[in-house]
Specification:
alpha/beta, globular, binds zinc ion, binds fe (iii) ion
Length: 255
Amino acid sequence: MPAQIYLFPCLTDNYGVLVHDPQSGATAAIDAPEAATVEAALQKTGWKLSDILVTHHHADHTQGIAALKQKHRCRVVAPRGEAQRIANVDETVGEGDAVRVGGLGGTVLETPGHTAGHISYVFPADKLAFVGDTLFSIGCGRVIEGNPEMMWQSLLKLRALPDDTRFYCGHEYTDANIRFARSIEPDNTALAARADEVAKLRAAGKPTIPATIGAEKAANPFLRADVPDVAKSVGHAGSPAWKVFAEIRERKNRF
Ligand code: ZN
Ligand code: FE
């Protein structure tokens, strides 16, 4: 049976996600931005929390863990590289490790850059990816603990997922990301189409995620640093892709 997903906004611009296996009843929260909002989501769905899958140590992804674990006795899975910075962890995981949520089979991709140990969770059979603050729709996370080359490699890993993979990220930043992306690729028609779609979604008060990897490849400048026209538009024709990426990221920081 396919996974069921419940997406909900929390804090200022974070997203929480529940992933539910209808067969076994298992339910994972992807990160725990805020215990009360996760509780409300559990109430609303009637699902019982069995696991928390943590992408990285930042407080806006972990501060709900303690209260949720206390109440639900759920298993907490976290990146091996950041286990010392996250309390209440039961299991640490790294590249290629299997993570099961009931009958749903996930695997871990290490996607460092935003933080040094950041991981993403991929569920190939359901074509789902939970990417934390590595990839956003039409954007990517700030490179805080890693370096641009590392972040570019992480984005390449996510870009290599099948085009019809739906990914869920940690924040609703799509509007601002589109404004920036248009400064890099003003003539990108896929980006213009995404801008229209996002304007409609936001006007209706709806989330802009999930997005698909295939659609992002066509419109997200941070996944397009190896496209010659993109390199040229930021004055880096002929440079290695990671340097083009670094320039785009730097421009976004100042945008
Ligand atoms: Zn973060
Ligand atoms: Fe975050």
